[in-house]
Amino acid sequence: MVQQEIRQTIVTKTWPRLLLLPAALALLFGGIMHGRAFNKAVATLGAVDLPPFYANSFKALWLIDSATLISLAIVFTLIAARPATVTRWIVILLAFIPGATAALIYIFVGSFFPAHLLAAASIATIAAGSRFSPAPPQ
Question: What is the pLDDT of residues 20-77, one digit of tens each?
Fold first, then answer.
């Protein structure tokens, strides 16, 4: 009986946290690397003749992606630290953000390491959400 309770605690409390933290690290790493590549992207953008609206939209979207990844990394870390703040479905819904981004990269860019990183983070988050059981309020 005690072993079963320990096993249940590991599955519903520890395991989801251990899945969310690597997902958060992957997203943080991706967001930082994407942000660091901004100057190269802008330099490449200077080599093409785009109307200012499209050039500025590209710059904004580039940095928006970095901000989204870093923000999700922070949210996943906070969820792992304080599971009572969210429900299982919120965790699963949050997983769709990197998952959808990965899918769009696969569609428009092809097989590309950042897409694999985003897909892995999404899968880990869905797995965490499927086993997620928030801590009871104290």
Answer: 999 999 999 999 999 999 999 999 988 898 999 999 999 999 999 999 999 999 999 9
CA nearest 96: which of 118, 66, 64?
118
**Cα separation, 90 vs 95, whole angstroms:** 9
**What does the alpha-carbon distance between residue 133 and residue 22 come to, in Å, rounded to a whole number?**
19
* Residue of 61, 64, 63 whose CA lies nearest to 53: 61
> Taking each helix axis from N to C terminus, what angle separates 113-131 and 88-108, rounded to the nearest 10 degrees?
160
With vertex at residue 15, the alpha carbon angle to CA 11 and CA 19, rounded to the nearest 5 degrees, is 150
Residue with tokens 């590549």: 37
CB neighbours of 108 closer than 8 A, spacing ≥ 6?
Answer: none
Domain that includes residue 114, residue range: 18-131
Taking the C-alpha atoms of residue 98 and residue 80, their distance in angstroms, rounded to an integer, is 17
Question: Do 23 and 128 form a contact (C-beta atoms < 8 A)?
Answer: yes
Domain count, the chain: 1
For the entire predicted model, the pTM comes to 0.85
